[in-house]
Design goal:
Helix content: 55-70%
Structural class: mainly alpha
CATH architecture: Orthogonal Bundle
CATH topology: Recoverin, domain 1
Length: 102
C-alpha cells in the first residue's frame, strides 16, 4: 500500500474504518457477498470499477462519502495506479486497515 502524508493517511484510515463499519452493519456480509456487489456495480463488465461505479457500490452499503473522500479511498485501493479498483485490490484495502488498529 502506498503511504500518504499524515493528514491524508489519517483521513483514509478513518474513511476505511467507516466503510468497514457500514459493511458490517448490513449483516451477513462475507467475501462472496462483497464479490456479488462488486460484479453488480461493474457496469461495463471489465472486472474493474471506476470512481462512479465505486460510489454506487459504497452507496449499496449506505456509505456516502464526499467526492474528495471518495477519490482518496479510490486512490488508497488502487494499488496498481491504473485509475480503477479490481476486486483483489478492494479486498486487500479492506484487510489493510487491520494494521492501523490502535
Amino acid at each position: 500500500m502506498a503511504l500518504y502524508g499524515v493528514g491524508l493517511d489519517t483521513t483514509v484510515k478513518r474513511l476505511n474504518t467507516d466503510l468497514k463499519l457500514a459493511i458490517s452493519q448490513r449483516g451477513g456480509i462475507n467475501i462472496r457477498t462483497l464479490h456479488r456487489v462488486f460484479k453488480k456495480v461493474d457496469l461495463n463488465g471489465n472486472n474493474k470499477i471506476d470512481i462512479k461505479e465505486f460510489e454506487i457500490g459504497l452507496a449499496h452499503f449506505g456509505f456516502f462519502p464526499k467526492k474528495v473522500d471518495l477519490q482518496a479511498l479510490l486512490n488508497f485501493y488502487d494499488i496498481d495506479r491504473d485509475g480503477f479498483i479490481n476486486f483483489e485490490e478492494f479486498v486487500k484495502g479492506l484487510r489493510y486497515i487491520h494494521h492501523f488498529k490502535n
